[in-house]
Amino acid sequence: MTTDTSTTVEWLTEEQQTHWRAFRGGAARLFAALEHELERDTGLSTHEYEVLVRLSETPDRTLRMAQLADNIAHSRSRLTHTIRRMEEQGLVVRLPCVEDARGVNATMTDKGWEVLVAAAPKHVQSVRDHLVDVLTEEQFAALGEAMEAVRVHLTGGACHVEGVASEC
Amino acid sequence: MTTDTSTTVEWLTEEQQTHWRAFRGGAARLFAALEHELERDTGLSTHEYEVLVRLSETPDRTLRMAQLADNIAHSRSRLTHTIRRMEEQGLVVRLPCVEDARGVNATMTDKGWEVLVAAAPKHVQSVRDHLVDVLTEEQFAALGEAMEAVRVHLTGGACHVEGVASEC
DNA sequence: AACTGTTAGTTCAAAGTTGTACTACACTCA
DNA sequence: TGAGTGTAGTACAACTTTGAACTAACAGTT
What we know:
Two copies of one chain form a homodimer. By secondary structure, chain A is mainly alpha-helical. Chain A has a domain at about 25-120: Arc Repressor Mutant, subunit A (Orthogonal Bundle). Helices cover about 60% and strands about 10% of the residues of chain A. The first copy, chain A, binds a DNA duplex through helix 4.
């Protein structure tokens, strides 16, 4: 082992480059398409949709801000803005946390629930149209497993918050 | 065929849901990590990097605005802003297009080239660290092929602009 | 040449995102 | 009990993105 700072990097093969570009380009266009269809069909952004989904999966439709932020991989600051906007729309409410006076609980309202229930079928259909049904079952499973490995690598495998089971 | 507007949607199986979430979560975290490392190491955003890459691959380091926008899947408006910022940094220049007086050519400067040459090894290393080397060769190839199918589905297969061969 | 429809690119204002700084509270350990 | 350290969430200001409106120029028609 040397301390050479100008070590050569192993370049990508032409094949790898092709795959990497397909991944970047495909993912960018896919997320853009899903975003547009969800916005058009329901008025929600995919981020707002994700928030509602996560809240809907807890017993009391409530999560701490930090948990929510970790779940959907947003910065704290970004989540504060998103939740404020959703609160203005009446989709969620924020309440101080009893156990920890620093904390804030975001809770889904009945309206939030209704909006999610109305939005989900359309969004699922979009995901089918542009991703799931475009691939074979094996391809889609391989995609999921590969990206799960990437996620585990990036987050150190962590995917749980004390007290509340979260999606892994 | 009916005109029933409330047709039931085929839901995702639990497995499909898991894969879909892994894909979303993994991709979001991966792109965020790459963005941060590139910014930290070179001061470039991944979008600026992409612009430089595309320009570097043409014989005269030049592309029309619209071609560039299509290549990297950005809106026209967004590309205008990106190129303006890059022009202020001296990475590209904009020149009127001779063949079509409506058009504008974006050309990479020597400085842009140098910045790209300096940035590329670091970025490739990031891509290796967090994606390519995390997966087996087969997994990575499967990922690329799947996302290529998604891209083709979304763009109607188009991936070429008259006159200039672009990445497919 | 004038008319129509289309394409290229920019501009504008509104909305979203980012990172830092800040306040408040909690935890630890002397 | 209080000093020091860490965590939760928000506020702020700078920056980026979005979509619609706009100007200019091409292309085809009559």
